[in-house]
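For anyone still unconvinced, we reproduce a single protein record, the chain in one-letter code, the fold tokenised, and leave readers to judge:
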Amino acid sequence: MIVVAIIAILAAIAIPNFIGFKKKAMIAAAAANLENARVALSSYAAAQDEWCYPPTLTNYSDFVDVLRSHGLAFPSSPAGLKWHSFNGYYRDPSDCKLYTISITVGDGATRLKALPAGVCCSSESDPPTNCENFAKNILSCSTLGVP
């Protein structure tokens, strides 16, 4: 009986830690995949005469198809990237050298964005403290001037 109680106490301590580590790893993997998309976008822009990024793409498969010839090797579903959903790629209509990629991480709550300046954790995450608690090494989008 004492052994069972000790195991229960250890499990009560270990399981929340494991869940936190798993969430941190999922967010880190999603951010790394966003970095890969940024590299492919840079390659696309370098191949253009005016260094412009591709036009707005709201569909994940269109996004992957456009960037495949520029080094992007993503699976057919965003779930393979630790992304819950691809919320769209938007190019600024007034400046073709600015863009935002918006995704929801596989946890279904944390929102990440990729910009020419880097990957950031959005305050649109639910709860917003996901960025502070699980993505400490990723800049907050507000520091880059993005909501």
